[in-house]
Prior knowledge:
Layout: H1 5-15, E1 24-26, H2 28-34, E2 37-42, H3 52-63, E3 71-75, H4 79-90, E4 95-99, H5 105-113, E5 117-120, H6 125-135, E6 140-142, H7 149-165, E7 171-175, H8 180-192, E8 197-203, H9 208-215, H10 238-247, E9 250-254, H11 256-270, H12 276-287, E10 297-302, H13 309-322, E11 326-334, H14 339-349, E12 353-360, E13 370-378, H15 382-394, E14 398-400
Parallel strand pairs: 2-10, 3-4, 3-6, 4-5, 7-8, 7-10, 8-9
Antiparallel strand pairs: 1-2, 11-13, 11-14, 12-13
Amino acid sequence: xxxxxxxxxxxxxxxxxxxxxxxxxxxPTFSRLFGAEVYLKLENLQxxxxxxxxxxxxxxxxxxxxxxxxxxxxASAGNHAQGVALAAxxxxxxxxxxMPEWASLTKQEATRSYGGEILLHGRTLGESLEKARExxxxxxxxxxxxxxxxxxxxxxxxxMEIVEDCPDVHAVLVPVGGGGLIAGIASAVKALRPxxxxxxxxxxxxxxxxxxxxxxxVVRVEGAQSIADGITVKELGRxxxxxxxxxxxxxxxxxxxxxxxxxxxxxxxxxxxxxxxGAVPLGALLMGELKWPPGAKIVLVVSGGNVDSSLLGRILTxxxxxxxxxxxxxxxxxxxxxxxxxxxxxxxxxxxxVLHISHNRHAPHLPIxxxxxxxxxxxxxxxxxxxxxxxxxxxxxxxxxS
Length: 402
């Protein structure tokens, strides 16, 4: 089922004044790093912190006169929940959101703050979806997160904005979960500028879109947990698949380390807080496998910025390790007064900062007068870390593989 440019243009008129037109921001740093003109489409600045409000608002406004007597129901662990809740409230409609039992308290509270009534049900999102569909037979209207032409048309307004702001865009990199976002963007961009390449980006641990395009049919994959939890959808939508097959140039995969590095880079270099799913387009550039002409204009769709504080800390640490900014080193140290102070002084003399120390005297293989000291050290990068390790070895410290 195709979504035409006329559908997306109508969606844009419906959404006028109801959503934000998010900025398209040029990044000199990323442009220099990747040899292209790199722009960021900042949907993390959208209402509710993600693009989901576009499709949800369009869908609810399209069917408001025919809604079930109890309002709308949706299933989501995060962004779709918040988008539906706010879209329903703005339209004067009741919303009921089924969230899996493990949904974070932060996202539960955010959904409630937008007016959503929450039911915690299911150990998986699939079980939550089943419950939401069951409720749709009891007076609620089900709002699908991605496999719906009205939802896709709403997300397609992002593609219209990209072409309006960057008419000669060479490629647009889009996160892919269920496929509604990339289907909408591809439908708009390819209609307005057919020569533009649309590139889907997925977490490597859940390659449902790539597998579907390879096998030429929708297939279910066994996905694993990912930093980019918002796009770990095990099965691409049927309607998005039909659109991707015709309008998407390729789908690339990004591993967890590069996703974490991308989150860190966006935060440090552009002061942009992106969730893992929103950072995967930059992660794809970091992987180094995509090629285009020098100076080509590339747009990265930063789809959302809703990341829990506790998860953010783990992501940033992983990114620092991936970039060589945090190094772990272990030394066998004489267990005598001053030995540890000397080790720390040498690390400090090379301009590194010690974050954590583990001091172990009881490892079975150690001589009685030797301690095993593990340091987690903040460095400028891999070369700086190697400099410290070489200095320790040259001073007679016995380094042990961490």
